[in-house]
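ok so I'm stuck.
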Amino acid sequence: MTVDRAGGLRGRCGETEELRLASASLHRGEEPPITGSGGSGTIFVTGCNLGCVFCQNYQISRQGMGRVVTSEEFAAIALRLQEKGAENINIVTGSHAVPAIVRGIDAARSDGLRIPVLWNSSAYESPAMLDLLKTRVDVYLPDLKTLDSGLARRYFNAPDYPRHAAAAILNMIEFQGELCRESSAGSSNSVLKKGVIIRHLALPGHLESTREVIRWFAAHCRGKALLSLMTQYTPVGVKNAPPGPENAPGRQVNQGEYGQILAWLEEFDIEDGFYQELVTGDEWLPDFEKQNPFSSELSVPLWHWTGGFV
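replied:
not stuck anymore, here's the structure
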């Protein structure tokens, strides 16, 4: 079903055609070729076109924290991030707002934005939206949450997610061609200037889904993209989650599951990419009511929806 968001109606994402943002910061907790020495210039977009029952950013994806910005304001935020040393402009979860974001990127480029633009999304995007992004995005950071339609229905509220996400990721790889990295000043890490990093979050109790994602990556993306395996899943109580006896796994990944994931990386000979150390606790979870939603070790705040520039 489609709605007239240009006419002020709200889509499944909960948003109209207007672009709303929640925060912007220099983030130091992304993958090394994204973080570099200056940090990634993250811009968090309000709303989401999925319905993940364990979303760590539920305050902005489900509860609507954020405010409307114009293309000029978006450009000003991007340029301030560049001025403060950001390695890139990392647009987080903007799939439902592509036309408005494209206008913001164009305005920023016209005003002097030179650093790469990253598209950090769930990969739940149509070919038409990807075509709009094609000439404006330098690096893609898509999730590949699952290739199991039953799991996609249960936990992401989108049974067609696997089909659309796999197709979108292959399009992203086709757009970008070979990975392009450059040295980062003051850091031993190279910075990705062009390419694709595919992220996958392992779900405790559902490792068969992770194995299938690793197998698919090996078959379709080896040598063309990087794989980033995340084990930071943390139970989060999300308001308005779909009813059911088990809305989401109620624990974190355990040591045995972690060892199995690493064994699969060896089985499928995946060497070019990243995997997280096993994460415990929930201290890293963001709180978008705060001026700095993350810890001071992870993030330097620059803009917040409640008051603008920090």
